[in-house]
Write a structure and sequence with these properties.
The protein has nine helices and eight strands. The chain is of the alpha/beta class and 230 residues long. The mean pLDDT is 95.
Length: 230
């Protein structure tokens, strides 16, 4: 993909985020989602000042890591299976998809063995969708308190994947509920926890996410165009 198109798309998206930000002094971070994108397309993001990217698949992280290492901090934003933790433990800067006690325990064990402390976001299934992973909003505080006692993990906030909606306005209450949960957990001041990131919103609904207080939005197709699957 042409580098200038990527740069222009990034500039347009950043302006939109600034225009819609709940706090214009602190607009959400635009995290490019690079699933299925070539290393060459991803490297073009450097010209737009990008230093952090989001990858969905462990296999893609492993394939692209030699080209991307040293150029970007990589967030794992897709589901993580326990048997693949060993491949990403020292390759990612954050795991945004911490969705169960079992995964937390396995990730903690591997982190301690590697001598690292992994930043994580607790993934919340705010829409209560059976086909999606994540803890329920009602479980969030107990989950975060549990993870706070695992020395290999550092809770930095919350993440969610919103339900698909033809009209994003119909899911605005869910964005609002996520912000409310985020603020409630922040107010708890849980020892060992640093609630500062609220990762929500994608290409179709990032404006509402910004309005409702996201600190980070995950955008792929609005930067690169529609995905081409191998």
């Amino acid at each position: 993909m042409d580098e200038q198109i990527i740069i222009q798309n990034m500039d347009n998206l950043r302006r939109e985020l600034l225009r819609h930000a709940r706090d214009p002094a602190h607009p959400p971070l635009l995290l490019p989602v690079t699933k299925t994108r070539s290393a060459a397309d991803i490297l073009a993001l450097q010209a737009a000042g990008v230093t952090q990217i989001g990858e969905n698949r462990v296999q893609e992280i492993m394939q692209k890591y030699p080209a991307l290492s040293g150029n970007f901090d990589i967030h794992l934003i897709g589901r993580l299976q326990t048997n693949k933790i060993k491949y990403i433990i020292e390759r990612v800067c954050m795991v945004q998809s911490l969705d169960s006690l079992r995964l937390a325990q396995a990730l903690d064990a591997r982190a301690q063995a590697a001598g690292v402390r992994v930043p994580v976001l607790a993934e919340v299934n705010i829409g209560g969708e059976a086909q999606k992973t994540g803890i329920s909003p009602e479980e969030a505080e107990a989950f975060v308190r549990y993870v706070s006692r695992l020395p290999g993990l550092h809770v930095r906030g919350l993440m969610t994947v919103m339900p698909n909606a033809a009209d994003p306005e119909t899911i605005r209450p869910l964005f609002r509920a996520m912000r409310s949960l985020y603020e409630r957990l922040r107010s708890q001041a849980i020892d060992g926890v640093q609630i500062e990131e609220l990762s929500m919103g994608m290409s179709g609904d990032f404006r509402i996410a910004a309005e409702e207080g996201a600190t980070m939005v995950r955008i792929g197709s609005a930067i690169f165009g529609e995905r081409v699957y191998p």
